[in-house]
Amino acid sequence: MLDRIRILAQVVESGSFSRAARALNLAPSSVTRTIDALEQQLGVPLFKRSTRQLVLTEQGEYFLARSLPLLEEADQLVQSLQPLSGAPRGGLRVSVFESFGAAWLAPRLPTFLARYPEVRLEIELDNRLVDLDAENVDVAVRIGRPTDSSLHARRLLANRTLLVASPDYLAAHGEPAHPDELISHNCLIRGQGRQRQHWYFEREGEKRRVAVQGNLASIGGTPLLCAAKAGSGLLLLSSWMVQQGLDDGSLLPVLPEWQASPYEDRHDEIYAVFRGGRFLKPQTRAFIDFLIEVMKPLQGPR
Protein backbone atom coordinates (compact mmCIF):
# COMPACT_ATOMS: atom_id res chain seq x y z
CA MET A 1 0.00 0.00 0.00
CA LEU A 2 2.73 2.51 0.96
CA ASP A 3 4.62 1.91 -2.28
CA ARG A 4 1.44 2.55 -4.25
CA ILE A 5 0.81 5.76 -2.31
CA ARG A 6 4.35 6.94 -3.11
CA ILE A 7 3.67 6.47 -6.80
CA LEU A 8 0.33 8.28 -6.50
CA ALA A 9 2.06 11.21 -4.78
CA GLN A 10 4.69 11.35 -7.51
CA VAL A 11 2.05 11.29 -10.26
CA VAL A 12 0.27 14.24 -8.67
CA GLU A 13 3.53 16.14 -8.12
CA SER A 14 4.76 15.48 -11.67
CA GLY A 15 1.43 16.28 -13.29
CA SER A 16 1.43 13.25 -15.60
CA PHE A 17 1.96 9.51 -15.58
CA SER A 18 4.89 9.69 -18.00
CA ARG A 19 6.79 12.35 -16.06
CA ALA A 20 6.18 10.43 -12.82
CA ALA A 21 7.55 7.29 -14.49
CA ARG A 22 10.73 9.14 -15.45
CA ALA A 23 11.12 10.53 -11.95
CA LEU A 24 10.67 7.06 -10.44
CA ASN A 25 12.74 5.31 -13.11
CA LEU A 26 9.79 3.08 -13.97
CA ALA A 27 7.99 2.22 -17.17
CA PRO A 28 4.86 4.36 -17.76
CA SER A 29 2.78 1.20 -18.00
CA SER A 30 3.99 0.15 -14.54
CA VAL A 31 2.86 3.47 -13.07
CA THR A 32 -0.53 3.15 -14.76
CA ARG A 33 -1.00 -0.41 -13.46
CA THR A 34 -0.07 0.70 -9.94
CA ILE A 35 -2.68 3.48 -9.92
CA ASP A 36 -5.30 1.10 -11.35
CA ALA A 37 -4.47 -1.45 -8.65
CA LEU A 38 -4.70 1.22 -5.92
CA GLU A 39 -8.11 2.33 -7.17
CA GLN A 40 -9.31 -1.27 -7.17
CA GLN A 41 -7.97 -1.77 -3.65
CA LEU A 42 -9.73 1.36 -2.38
CA GLY A 43 -12.89 0.86 -4.42
CA VAL A 44 -12.97 4.51 -5.54
CA PRO A 45 -11.64 6.42 -8.58
CA LEU A 46 -8.66 8.63 -7.76
CA PHE A 47 -8.50 10.60 -11.02
CA LYS A 48 -11.15 12.13 -13.23
CA ARG A 49 -10.89 10.26 -16.51
CA SER A 50 -13.06 12.61 -18.56
CA THR A 51 -10.57 15.50 -18.69
CA ARG A 52 -7.29 15.95 -20.52
CA GLN A 53 -5.69 17.33 -17.39
CA LEU A 54 -4.64 15.11 -14.52
CA VAL A 55 -7.22 16.00 -11.88
CA LEU A 56 -7.87 14.18 -8.64
CA THR A 57 -11.40 13.25 -7.69
CA GLU A 58 -12.76 14.46 -4.38
CA GLN A 59 -12.01 11.02 -2.92
CA GLY A 60 -8.52 11.17 -4.42
CA GLU A 61 -7.78 14.55 -2.86
CA TYR A 62 -8.99 13.33 0.51
CA PHE A 63 -7.02 10.09 0.31
CA LEU A 64 -3.78 11.77 -0.74
CA ALA A 65 -4.04 14.48 1.92
CA ARG A 66 -4.50 11.87 4.65
CA SER A 67 -1.81 9.59 3.21
CA LEU A 68 1.11 12.01 2.95
CA PRO A 69 1.60 12.30 6.74
CA LEU A 70 1.62 8.49 6.90
CA LEU A 71 4.38 8.36 4.30
CA GLU A 72 6.44 10.91 6.21
CA GLU A 73 5.96 9.06 9.49
CA ALA A 74 6.92 5.75 7.84
CA ASP A 75 10.12 7.30 6.48
CA GLN A 76 10.96 8.78 9.86
CA LEU A 77 10.28 5.43 11.53
CA VAL A 78 12.77 3.70 9.25
CA GLN A 79 15.34 6.43 9.84
CA SER A 80 14.81 6.34 13.59
CA LEU A 81 15.78 2.66 13.66
CA GLN A 82 19.33 3.64 12.78
CA PRO A 83 21.34 3.59 16.02
CA LEU A 84 22.49 7.04 17.05
CA SER A 85 26.01 5.67 17.40
CA GLY A 86 25.81 4.75 13.71
CA ALA A 87 26.68 8.30 12.69
CA PRO A 88 23.62 10.35 11.66
CA ARG A 89 24.04 11.76 8.19
CA GLY A 90 22.25 14.06 5.79
CA GLY A 91 20.79 17.55 5.83
CA LEU A 92 19.55 19.31 8.95
CA ARG A 93 17.88 22.73 8.80
CA VAL A 94 17.69 24.69 12.05
CA SER A 95 16.11 28.06 12.86
CA VAL A 96 17.23 29.89 16.02
CA PHE A 97 16.19 33.27 17.36
CA GLU A 98 19.02 35.66 16.67
CA SER A 99 20.43 36.69 20.04
CA PHE A 100 20.58 33.14 21.40
CA GLY A 101 21.95 31.74 18.15
CA ALA A 102 24.70 34.33 17.79
CA ALA A 103 25.77 34.71 21.41
CA TRP A 104 25.43 31.19 22.75
CA LEU A 105 24.70 28.47 20.22
CA ALA A 106 27.01 29.43 17.33
CA PRO A 107 30.25 28.91 19.31
CA ARG A 108 29.12 25.37 20.18
CA LEU A 109 28.11 24.24 16.68
CA PRO A 110 31.67 23.13 15.74
CA THR A 111 31.47 20.59 18.57
CA PHE A 112 28.27 19.14 17.09
CA LEU A 113 29.76 19.00 13.59
CA ALA A 114 32.94 17.35 14.86
CA ARG A 115 30.84 14.72 16.61
CA TYR A 116 28.63 14.11 13.55
CA PRO A 117 30.80 14.95 10.52
CA GLU A 118 28.32 13.46 8.02
CA VAL A 119 25.56 15.90 8.99
CA ARG A 120 25.14 18.92 6.71
CA LEU A 121 23.88 21.69 8.99
CA GLU A 122 22.06 24.74 7.66
CA ILE A 123 21.31 27.28 10.38
CA GLU A 124 19.25 30.44 10.14
CA LEU A 125 19.36 33.17 12.76
CA ASP A 126 16.02 34.92 12.56
CA ASN A 127 13.58 36.37 15.08
CA ARG A 128 10.50 35.71 12.95
CA LEU A 129 8.22 32.76 13.69
CA VAL A 130 9.05 30.29 10.92
CA ASP A 131 6.58 27.77 9.49
CA LEU A 132 8.42 24.46 9.93
CA ASP A 133 6.37 22.66 7.28
CA ALA A 134 6.37 25.38 4.64
CA GLU A 135 10.08 26.16 5.04
CA ASN A 136 11.24 22.57 5.60
CA VAL A 137 12.80 23.38 8.97
CA ASP A 138 13.73 20.38 11.11
CA VAL A 139 14.25 22.15 14.44
CA ALA A 140 13.39 25.66 15.63
CA VAL A 141 14.67 27.10 18.90
CA ARG A 142 12.04 29.48 20.25
CA ILE A 143 11.08 31.39 23.37
CA GLY A 144 7.76 30.03 24.61
CA ARG A 145 5.86 26.82 23.99
CA PRO A 146 4.39 26.61 20.46
CA THR A 147 0.65 27.05 20.07
CA ASP A 148 0.55 24.82 16.96
CA SER A 149 -0.74 21.47 18.23
CA SER A 150 0.81 19.62 15.29
CA LEU A 151 4.33 20.43 16.51
CA HIS A 152 6.30 18.79 19.26
CA ALA A 153 8.48 20.61 21.78
CA ARG A 154 11.25 19.85 24.25
CA ARG A 155 11.88 22.33 27.03
CA LEU A 156 15.53 23.32 26.93
CA LEU A 157 15.93 26.07 29.46
CA ALA A 158 14.13 28.30 31.90
CA ASN A 159 15.02 31.74 30.58
CA ARG A 160 16.28 33.14 33.89
CA THR A 161 17.48 36.72 34.01
CA LEU A 162 20.37 37.89 36.17
CA LEU A 163 21.35 41.36 37.38
CA VAL A 164 25.06 41.97 36.74
CA ALA A 165 27.67 44.69 36.50
CA SER A 166 31.41 44.91 35.88
CA PRO A 167 33.89 45.11 38.79
CA ASP A 168 34.94 48.57 37.57
CA TYR A 169 31.37 49.90 37.68
CA LEU A 170 30.75 48.54 41.18
CA ALA A 171 34.08 49.93 42.40
CA ALA A 172 33.21 53.37 41.06
CA HIS A 173 29.52 53.56 42.00
CA GLY A 174 29.08 51.09 44.84
CA GLU A 175 27.07 47.88 44.96
CA PRO A 176 23.33 48.28 45.69
CA ALA A 177 22.17 46.44 48.80
CA HIS A 178 18.44 46.62 47.95
CA PRO A 179 16.44 46.92 44.69
CA ASP A 180 15.17 50.35 45.74
CA GLU A 181 18.75 51.69 45.43
CA LEU A 182 18.74 51.09 41.67
CA ILE A 183 17.06 54.46 41.20
CA SER A 184 20.47 56.09 41.73
CA HIS A 185 22.30 53.80 39.28
CA ASN A 186 22.73 53.86 35.52
CA CYS A 187 20.71 50.91 34.25
CA LEU A 188 21.17 49.52 30.75
CA ILE A 189 17.68 49.07 29.34
CA ARG A 190 16.41 46.24 27.15
CA GLY A 191 13.70 47.70 24.91
CA GLN A 192 12.73 51.14 23.68
CA GLY A 193 14.37 53.89 25.71
CA ARG A 194 11.37 56.21 25.29
CA GLN A 195 9.17 53.83 27.27
CA ARG A 196 9.26 53.90 31.05
CA GLN A 197 10.94 50.74 32.26
CA HIS A 198 10.48 48.73 35.45
CA TRP A 199 12.42 45.80 36.84
CA TYR A 200 10.75 43.35 39.21
CA PHE A 201 12.35 41.65 42.21
CA GLU A 202 11.18 38.92 44.57
CA ARG A 203 12.76 37.45 47.70
CA GLU A 204 11.00 35.16 50.18
CA GLY A 205 7.58 36.58 49.38
CA GLU A 206 8.74 40.20 49.31
CA LYS A 207 8.18 41.87 45.93
CA ARG A 208 9.56 45.14 44.62
CA ARG A 209 8.79 47.05 41.43
CA VAL A 210 11.56 49.49 40.59
CA ALA A 211 11.52 52.20 37.93
CA VAL A 212 14.90 52.19 36.21
CA GLN A 213 16.58 54.56 33.80
CA GLY A 214 19.90 54.86 32.03
CA ASN A 215 21.80 56.29 29.10
CA LEU A 216 21.65 53.23 26.81
CA ALA A 217 18.67 51.25 25.53
CA SER A 218 18.61 48.46 22.94
CA ILE A 219 16.09 45.94 21.69
CA GLY A 220 18.95 43.47 21.27
CA GLY A 221 21.02 42.36 24.21
CA THR A 222 24.49 42.39 22.61
CA PRO A 223 25.12 46.20 22.78
CA LEU A 224 24.00 46.20 26.41
CA LEU A 225 26.28 43.30 27.28
CA CYS A 226 29.27 45.04 25.73
CA ALA A 227 28.46 48.22 27.63
CA ALA A 228 28.06 46.38 30.93
CA LYS A 229 31.46 44.68 30.54
CA ALA A 230 32.99 48.09 29.80
CA GLY A 231 31.67 49.45 33.10
CA SER A 232 28.77 51.55 31.80
CA GLY A 233 26.03 50.38 34.14
CA LEU A 234 23.87 47.64 35.65
CA LEU A 235 22.37 45.07 33.32
CA LEU A 236 19.41 42.69 33.66
CA LEU A 237 19.74 40.04 30.97
CA SER A 238 19.20 36.33 30.26
CA SER A 239 21.56 33.99 32.08
CA TRP A 240 22.80 32.42 28.85
CA MET A 241 24.03 35.83 27.67
CA VAL A 242 25.83 36.85 30.85
CA GLN A 243 27.15 33.48 32.05
CA GLN A 244 30.44 33.70 30.17
CA GLY A 245 31.10 37.12 31.72
CA LEU A 246 30.38 35.68 35.16
CA ASP A 247 32.72 32.77 34.48
CA ASP A 248 35.63 34.92 33.32
CA GLY A 249 35.12 37.64 35.95
CA SER A 250 34.27 40.48 33.57
CA LEU A 251 30.82 40.59 35.23
CA LEU A 252 29.72 40.12 38.83
CA PRO A 253 26.27 39.20 40.18
CA VAL A 254 24.32 42.02 41.81
CA LEU A 255 21.58 41.40 44.42
CA PRO A 256 21.98 37.62 43.89
CA GLU A 257 19.57 36.81 46.73
CA TRP A 258 16.74 38.43 44.75
CA GLN A 259 15.00 36.87 41.77
CA ALA A 260 15.05 39.59 39.13
CA SER A 261 12.94 39.87 35.99
CA PRO A 262 11.98 42.50 33.42
CA TYR A 263 8.41 41.15 33.60
CA GLU A 264 6.01 41.21 36.50
CA ASP A 265 4.30 37.86 35.95
CA ARG A 266 5.93 36.24 32.92
CA HIS A 267 8.75 33.72 32.87
CA ASP A 268 9.80 32.81 29.35
CA GLU A 269 11.24 29.39 28.60
CA ILE A 270 13.28 28.19 25.64
CA TYR A 271 12.03 25.21 23.62
CA ALA A 272 13.24 23.08 20.75
CA VAL A 273 10.28 22.78 18.38
CA PHE A 274 10.13 20.05 15.76
CA ARG A 275 7.93 17.84 13.64
CA GLY A 276 7.73 14.07 13.67
CA GLY A 277 7.00 13.11 17.25
CA ARG A 278 8.46 9.71 18.13
CA PHE A 279 9.98 9.02 14.72
CA LEU A 280 12.66 11.63 14.21
CA LYS A 281 15.41 11.69 11.63
CA PRO A 282 18.61 10.58 13.37
CA GLN A 283 20.28 13.94 12.75
CA THR A 284 17.27 15.77 14.23
CA ARG A 285 17.32 13.57 17.29
CA ALA A 286 21.09 14.01 17.65
CA PHE A 287 20.81 17.80 17.47
CA ILE A 288 18.04 18.00 20.10
CA ASP A 289 20.02 15.72 22.41
CA PHE A 290 23.07 17.94 21.84
CA LEU A 291 21.10 21.06 22.77
CA ILE A 292 19.92 19.45 26.00
CA GLU A 293 23.47 18.34 26.82
CA VAL A 294 25.20 21.68 26.27
CA MET A 295 22.50 23.65 28.09
CA LYS A 296 22.84 21.69 31.33
CA PRO A 297 25.29 24.23 32.82
CA LEU A 298 22.62 26.92 32.47
CA GLN A 299 19.79 25.01 34.12
CA GLY A 300 20.11 26.33 37.64
CA PRO A 301 22.05 28.64 39.94
CA ARG A 302 25.78 28.30 39.43
Automatic annotation (TrEMBL):
Top-level taxon of origin: Bacteria
SUPFAM superfamilies, sorted: Periplasmic binding protein-like II (SSF53850), Winged helix' DNA-binding domain (SSF46785)
Location of the HTH lysR-type domain: 1-57
Keywords, in A-Z order: DNA-binding, Transcription, Transcription regulation
Pfam family, one: LysR_substrate
Keyword Electron transport listed: no
MF terms (GO), sorted A to Z: DNA binding; DNA-binding transcription factor activity
Similarity field: Belongs to the LysR transcriptional regulatory family.
Name this polypeptide is given: LysR family transcriptional regulator
Organism the protein comes from: Aeromonas lusitana
Organism placement in taxonomy: Bacteria, Pseudomonadati, Pseudomonadota, Gammaproteobacteria, Aeromonadales
